[in-house]
Amino acid sequence: MNSNIKTARIVGILFIIATVAYSLGVILLDPILGASDYLTIVSGNENQMMIGSFLVLIDAVAVAGIGIMIYPILKKHSESLALGYAGARIAEGVLFTINVIAILTLLALSQDFVKAGSPDASYYQTFGTILLAAGDLAFLFGFAVAFTISALILNYLLYRSNLVPRWLSGWGFAGAALLWVYYLLQSFNIDLLGILFIPIAVQEMVFAVWLIVKGFDPHAIDYGDVNTDTNEIK
Prior knowledge:
Blueprint: H1 3-33, H2 38-44, H3 46-74, H4 79-115, H5 122-161, H6 166-186, H7 198-213, H8 218-233
């Protein structure tokens, strides 16, 4: 099998794994972490917390893997942008991992809280609030900053290089821009109920299937090789 075809399929599969793992992880974790008496509820749902955290960790590994696997293809068209994309995805994975660490630490805290007989102590509430805030902040930077920047870089480079059809990469770039707008509006307390997430979410799945079935345009890859060789001669 051609190495470029194999790389495209692996990247496509990693996109699907990341999306499914993230979605399931959020479904499991959000209702628990969002509860008013989260210290008690977290302790009572240990298995759900562990499974949800593991799924988020899978997402973290998958997104970092995407950046690493696709780098050799992208660097043929722009080494700096390819490095920026890989770096953003690795940073996203690291931030999601920090989010998982905060969640698991909160689980340990909640169990200690329950074992102590649910004492009326500010220590537990204060530390719990700090852990929730740290996890949320890591997640926010991982998704709103690292993911959005990586999506903009990737789809710009795909559009410029014609590695995939331009309607697909253009859709992805527009979806990433809308996601940026979503977080910008949130700072003004304007919540569009997540509708701006839909374009990039759907595009990523279409992109993943495209890579698995069609792969990257071999002519565009060859053109990238020619450009790289020409630049090195100059």
